[in-house]
Amino acid sequence: MFVMHCYSSKYISIDQVNKKIISMKKNMGNADRIIRVLIAGIFAYLYFGGIVTGTLGLVLLVLGGVFVLTSLVSFCPLYTLVGLNTCPRKEVK
Predict the structure, then answer these.
(1) What is the pTM of this model?
(2) Which residues on adjacent β-strands are paired with residue 5?
(3) Is residue 26 within 8 Å of 87, Cβ to Cβ?
């Protein structure tokens, strides 16, 4: 087992770090991911096409970036707070 040294003079094992990374379970299904990417594309088109400008345009662009990022990792932190899960469950045989 490898050990990393933190700045607070505490030692954290690689296993502990991996457990924290793995604990982020998927909560978005494929349909939800596709819809988010399409909406992000529409937001980008509106902004770069000059249809929506100014602060609202920047907000839409940032929101589109968040949509793409959450789609790539299949995890939405807001879904966790609300208790929503659109990822289909795999049946255990």
Answers:
(1) 0.68
(2) 11
(3) yes
Per-residue buried b or exposed e for 13-27, using 16+ beta carbons within 10 Å of the residue's own CB: eeeeeeeeeeeeeeb
pLDDT at 89: 76
* DSSP per position, 26-52: ----HHHHHHHHHHHHHHHHHHHTTSS
pLDDT in tens, 28-64: 999 999 999 999 999 999 999 999 999 999 999 999 9
Give me the half-sphere count of Cα atoms (radius 13 Å) on the Cβ side of residue 57. 11
Could you give the angle at which helices 54-73 and 30-48 cross, rounded to 10 degrees?
Answer: 150
Residues 6+ apart with CB under 8 A from 58: 47
Tokens encoding 29: 């299904």
C-alpha distance from residue 55 to each of 46, 59, 71 (Å): 13, 6, 24
